[in-house]
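Long-time lurker. I teach an intro course on protein structure, and each term I like to show students one example going from raw sequence to a predicted 3D structure in C-alpha cell notation. This year I'd like something fresh instead of my usual example. Would anyone be willing to generate the C-alpha cells for the chain below so I can use it in lecture? Attribution to the forum is fine with me.
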Amino acid sequence: MTIQLFVAPAGPEVLNYSPPCMKVEVWMKLAGLSYRTITATRFTDLWRAPKGKVPYIVDGDDIVADSEIIIAFLSRKYSVDLDHGLRPEQKAIARALERMLNEHTYWCLVYFRYVDVQDWVVYRRALCAGSSG
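-- Reply from a regular --
Happy to contribute to a lecture. Here you go:
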C-alpha cells in the first residue's frame, strides 16, 4: 500500500514551501518508502488532518500528523533508522542541528510572512502559483 503524504504547495525551485513538509518528504525518499504526495487544499483535505494542518500522512487506517511524529511512526512501522551508521556523538550533533533548524527556520518564515510586507508579497505570489486550489 502506498502512503499518502499531504503537504503544502511546492514551487518551481523548491520541493515544498513548508520546511516540515519538506522534511517528511525528504526523509521518506531517503528511507525508500513508497508514497504519493498530495497538495492539501483547505476544502478537500485539511478537514481530515488531525491538527488541521500539513504535513500529515494516511497509511492504511492510520492518519498521523506533525513531522517529528510522522517520522517516528514510520521509523517504527517500517523499521527504518537513517542514523544507524552514526556514532552516539554524531547522533547528538545531528539532533542539535535538527532542533536548531526546526526552530529558527520557523521563525524566519514567520518574519517573512507576517512582518516584512515586501517579502510576504513575493512569498504569497509563489504560494499561490504553486497551489492547486
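Some talking points for your students: The chain is about 50% helix and 15% strand. Residues 19 and 101 are 9 Å apart (CA to CA).
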